[in-house]
Amino acid sequence: MSDIHDTNLREGLGERSQSYWQKAWMRFRRHPFARWASVVLLVLYSLALFADFVGPYPEAKSFRKLQFVPPTKVYFKTEDGRWTRPYVCKVERSRNPRTFKLEFKENCEEKYTIYFFVKGYPYKFLGFIPMDLHLLGGPWLVEEKAYLFLWGTDDFGRDMFSRIWFGARISLTIGILATLVALLIGITMGGISGYYAGSRVHIVRGLFRPPQKRAAVPGEEGAAEKNGFFSGGALAEGWREAVHERRVPIFLVGLVLQYAFWGAATAVLYTTMQGFLSISEGLERYLAMIVFGGLLGIMVWMFLFGRLAVDVDDLIMRTTEILAAIPGLFLLIILSGMLAQYDMPSSTRFLLVLTILAFVGWGGLARNIRGFVLQLREMEYAQAAKALGAGDARILFRHIIPGTLGYLIVVASLAIPGYILAESGLSFLGLGIQEPSSSWGLLLSKAQQIGISAIKERPWLFIPGFFIFVSILTYNYLGDALRDALDPRAEH
Amino acid sequence: MTAYILRRFLHLIPTFLGATFLAFLVIQLAPGDFITRLELDPSYDRAQIENFRRLFGLDQPFTVQYAKWLSGFMKGYLGLSLSYQTDVWHVLKPRILNSMVLVISSIVFIYVVSIPIGIYSALRQYSWGDRFWTSFAFFGLAVPNFFFALLMLYFALWLKDTFGHEIFPIGGMRSLYIDGVDFFQAPKWRQWLDVMWHAVLPVIVAGTAGTAGLTRVMRTQMLETKMQDYVRTARAKGLAERVVIYKHILRNAVIPIIASIGFLLPELFGGAGFVEVVMAWPGLTPLILDAIFSIDVYILMGSISISVVLLMIGNLLSDLLLAWVDPRIRYS
């Protein structure tokens, strides 16, 4: 007996006790790629944050005559082979007399030394601190004596190197923000769906006693309630329940909503029928009369005598099924294509793209969260909270949702690359972020617009694609590491 | 089983109605309609424009338009395309067939490539080969389709410049001429061969993400099944390793893989969509993109409703297949 006791003691002394999060952090750090992925992402995000400083040119600065200039060569050696400070030569435009193609030639008569941490174009850091410090450049750059296009220029003669960092701002943040919005919708919908699964909500309560519902024996207990023309209806039944449970105000609000919804639905159905019948003829007209008439009849009957209660869970899950039934890309391009036809400032467009991405993507999250909530609401601590008299919202958001936190983090980190991909895809098709703003997808689309055969002459237009690839890759690695770290089954 | 299938079928009806109604609603978000741009054209007068509106039912409330469209759909009539001035089905049919060529070949490609790789990776876990394919899977999942398609075009151009003739075609779906004969006059098998030759690069691009994903799933499945008790039993009773692997491990591991065909479909639709746009494959997505900007309602509704039907049937078949392959699954 004492032996067992001793071993237990020794084991307890041997190791420090660690919380779930401490263990997860340990596991995360042990993951081979997690560190690399985090470092790469950190670098990308800081480059995006300091885009004004890193890029030598402002986002919209364009040189009309310098379209598709190849990357400027940076020389580290003089002509006689001695090492020197890096310098560039001036690019000059000429037309090839034989092919009539534009050509860019370097004129190395004068050398333009690249300075670091120099004054350049003024900008506002973080949007409000006026600065003019740049990582690369020189006085010649602002005076436009020579140009520094490290990664070439696009179709408007804008510096790709600068625009890639400005594009990183949008491409890298939209993924996170869209995930947050999608999570918000997903948690709310999935939470409600899971928590209220099985309980029904009335869409309509009939006003009067249904004809078939009558107490068999007139003298039976409660026969007055059952047989009364008004007091036998579903409405009266609900009223009695509400009075009994002391929640009359909520019941009344619900009632108003129910009838408003039902009235609107009937009105829409009626106008639809009218319009449809006015433009149809023959068999179609008769069939439509039967279908619409039948539907209207059922609705009116429900309003008078019936009752209709639905499971909120069912309703929400059917909605996610409907969203999933349309191929994601089609829904995405049609939604953003329709809205892209309005003129709007770039910040509004950013919000719009973000909202569209979240709207198309919340369904899967909601389904998963619902599954979790279904499990967790049966847990003892949730039951205990209920027994202590906590409200539904409190139990759901203070007790159940925090239990899914580990899962949510993993899901978020795996959803972000998907949204980055979706945004760049949309912008690539010209339906997402629009000029003059920049995003990686939009920048990459230049490679496609100029025609297939020209691709080979302008390979620098591919560079934004590598950035999309790298950011998705690192997020995938990060998500994998987080999943391994936060999965409770991974405990050793 | 019959009751289960029937119930699943009935379940599809509200989903279909909801999805098409949602699509119709989304199309209404556009500023104006197809006729709006005609209003700016001075060669049309008011009366003509009103006439057009009435002809296409655009003067009715949109629920009426939807009901009319739905009633047409049930008769097998998808409406009139506004910009092509013809029956929508005539425009859609070749596009859908073209897209199907791409999607079906991608599915075949995905399964043919990923299952052997998954088996290999699981049987030689942590070997160099396994590591190579695992990192390949990561790369394949991360590379954006449209970027990969551009790279492939670049590759095809490079091949052409290096060898002097087209090893792989540069975009498109068919050659204009086959051996000097017009494409449509050439024998059928030559036509198919030509299309297949054009499909090689697009299929690789469209299938890579799916291949990468499925390879990982296959590998995990194999690894999990390898640890089962019945595998140990099979070994213990002295079966040859080959029999153990192919009869006991593989057959059980492959079940969810087979069944996930239906769930691959939506992703493939999307993936193939980008490839179609970049590689000039005349499929459904380029058509939709054109229709979006001319607000050609019925082309959009036609392509969405047909892809919704295809997707739902794919999912249903997938579920049924799973239930059929795996007797442990009960349908309720």
UniProtKB/TrEMBL annotation, chain B:
Entry's family note: Belongs to the binding-protein-dependent transport system permease family.
Classification of source organism: Bacteria, Thermotogati, Deinococcota, Deinococci, Thermales
Organism annotation: Oceanithermus profundus (strain DSM 14977 / NBRC 100410 / VKM B-2274 / 506)
Coiled-coil stretches noted in the UniProt entry, renumbered to this chain: none
Membrane topology: Multi-pass membrane protein
Full protein name: Binding-protein-dependent transport systems inner membrane component
Chain ranges of the ABC transmembrane type-1 domain: 96-322
Domain of life from the UniProt record: Bacteria
Gene3D superfamilies: MetI-like
Gene Ontology terms describing biological process: transmembrane transport
Presence of the UniProt keyword ATP-binding in the record: no
Entry-linked SUPFAM superfamilies: MetI-like (SSF161098)
